[in-house]
Description:
single chain
Amino acid sequence: MTYQIYRYPAELIDVIYLPDGERIVIRPVLPQDRELMAAFFHDLPADARCNRFMHPVSEPSSELLRELTQVDYANHVALVAEVFVDGRETVIGEARYVRMADLSSAEVAVSVAKLWQGKGLAKLMLAKLECRAAAAGVRRLFSETLATNEKVVSLARKAGFVTTEATGAQGVARLEKTLEARDYSVAAHFASLTSMTTSNSERRGEEPPSPVTPVGPSTQTVGL
């Protein structure tokens, strides 16, 4: 099966260093990432998967993995954060937004592996998505999550989202943020967010990863 891709956004590839010195690659998702994404969601605790998808999920279905990895980069933008240990690639976080029919609003989702939470990774990925969305003409980001999902609610509030109770859905919180129009490049804006991590990379003499060539042509959706 093939899918339509607008343009692989190589400018979103980045190498960052967390405050504890951990080196992480953030890059756009590719269809070849199905097994990596399956392993990521498999390793999430059951309650984290439930929070992510708003219902219990034991294992992501083949259809869900297709939607998560076949991304068009026009209406659906998805990033993964990964580390390399002994040459083995492991996804430790994912973030995405999907535009609604009006194209001016988008649903956003972020999830991070338990061992990597509390390190600022979700905040960085959300900021990168927000910048990309604003530059693409999105004026409102939103998400719905279980009201008991305190970590996501706290992250959203710190990032400037307004929290309300979702209409007609008891126990569900709706998170919304209005974005300002931006006419500068994503790369330039995110460079200002990660100037410290970039300088660390330069000092260590490391090069960012080479852009990956996408295979095949996307069109899908998902939420936070």
